[in-house]
Design brief:
- By secondary structure, this protein is of the alpha+beta class.
- It has one domain.
- It is built from 2 helices and 4 strands, in the order E-H-E-E-H-E.
- Strands 1-4-2-3 form a 4-stranded antiparallel β-sheet, with helices on one face.
- The radius of gyration is 18 Å and the shape is elongated.
- The termini are far apart.
Length: 105
């Protein structure tokens, strides 16, 4: 998904437009995650870019999208650009977490 979302639409409540925008993003993420995983892939990950327009969009972490959308709305921005691209993800072991070393029993 590469899209510029308008927040000020004539004749529509800005808060409802903001809610509809978030809903559209969530539905896209759900749709992408339902796709069949390729061999050897653990989950669908997302490359994300966010900005006020496509020229100044910067890479951001997936978990911060809602907060960034809310920040643009709170500042009174008219629009924002969002780029979400699904990519294969591989789980990695956490450093310092050794399940064999649990001697608390």
């Amino acid at each position: 998904m590469k899209k510029t979302f308008q927040l000020n639409i004539e004749g529509k409540n800005r808060d409802r437009v903001l809610d509809a925008t978030k809903h559209e993003v969530r539905q896209y993420i759900k749709r992408e995650r339902r796709k069949t995983l390729p061999e050897g892939v653990d989950f669908w990950d997302f490359d994300c870019k966010f900005g006020t327009n496509p020229d100044n969009a910067q890479g951001v972490h997936f978990a911060t999208l809602t907060a960034l959308i809310d920040a643009v709305a709170k500042e009174g921005g008219d629009a924002f650009y969002l780029e979400l691209l699904a990519k294969p993800g591989h789980r990695t072991a956490r450093i310092g977490a050794d399940p064999q070393a649990d001697d608390s029993l």
